[in-house]
Amino acid sequence: MYLKADVAITYALFIGGFFLEVCSMLNFIMSPWTWSVLKGRKWERFASLSWFIFSSDVGWPEKKQRWPSSMGQYNFLSRSSSVSMNRPRATLGQRVMTVVRRVFVDLVGVKEEKIMWMSKVLDTWYVDADEMTLECVAKEIILLDDELNCGSTREWTDFGSLLKRLQTELYGDFAYAVVHMHILTELHLSKYPLPSDMAAAAAAAEDNEAVDLGMVQVCRKLSNYMIYLLVAHPSMLPITTSSAGLLKNWQTRVNMAREITREMNEYNLQPIKKTLEEMVSMWTRLLLYAAGKSRKEMHAAQLTSTGGELITFAWLLMAFYRLGDSQVRRVHIINTAHQDSARKAVYAFNIVRI
Description:
By secondary structure, this protein is mainly alpha-helical.
């Protein structure tokens, strides 16, 4: 007689393994490299099948872009928080994952890190890497270049207190700092109206000082994208722990979202245009720091397989401006006293250390 937990795990592994095999086969068939090989060997029928799958909706080709036309998204609070917030509706995959957690974690007692691989698939969704997002990335790279050339520094009037509090984590535990900022960002963005609120959008369009709801979406995209990289592509970030290990570490902290909610009262962040723009700059610089620290081999592999992530686009543009660890001018996360003085460097966050 088998235990219910063993039966449930066996079925979950079988279904999950079968699903991964099907996805792997589709990814192989829909690859343009596969089509090229089949075409070169005159296997016209197989080449036609490969091209049909690649050019159709089968296999979700928009997620396998040749360039960052889409961004992966993963929201930490959508999977673990009971805090009531004004945020977009959950995707179908997220709703399915919620049912999976209730069955396997709550009823059967399976540890959640054991089903992390399912969460990477079901809790992940994709959005357009719109022109506004790419412009924010390009603008911040140019600002970093200007700061290095002119010796100027960026002032963080709204988020200076947060950066001072997290300066140790930013330097020593980048993953912790990203998740902390992600939760704080979601709590702050919940103060803004959703894009579906047409009345608020119309009012924003008429008032030049009003919050641009497009920037709200850019901020949320960048925040979710960094968590997506943390979960799906941790090797592209300057971290030492795995996504499952980070998840387990954060689950041991009780009511983390509520603690950060109380912490936000100290910062007194208001839902205004200036605060939102500073938050977008903060997330963009986190992305640029991660891009500068990433290895060029990782981006080369991305370019030859899926066409590259948004972080690859940032890495290439930074290389053009000779920014990053692989270039002559490094990007450090904060202005610490222990830096390599032999090479020029710029700081993502120039703050006063406590």
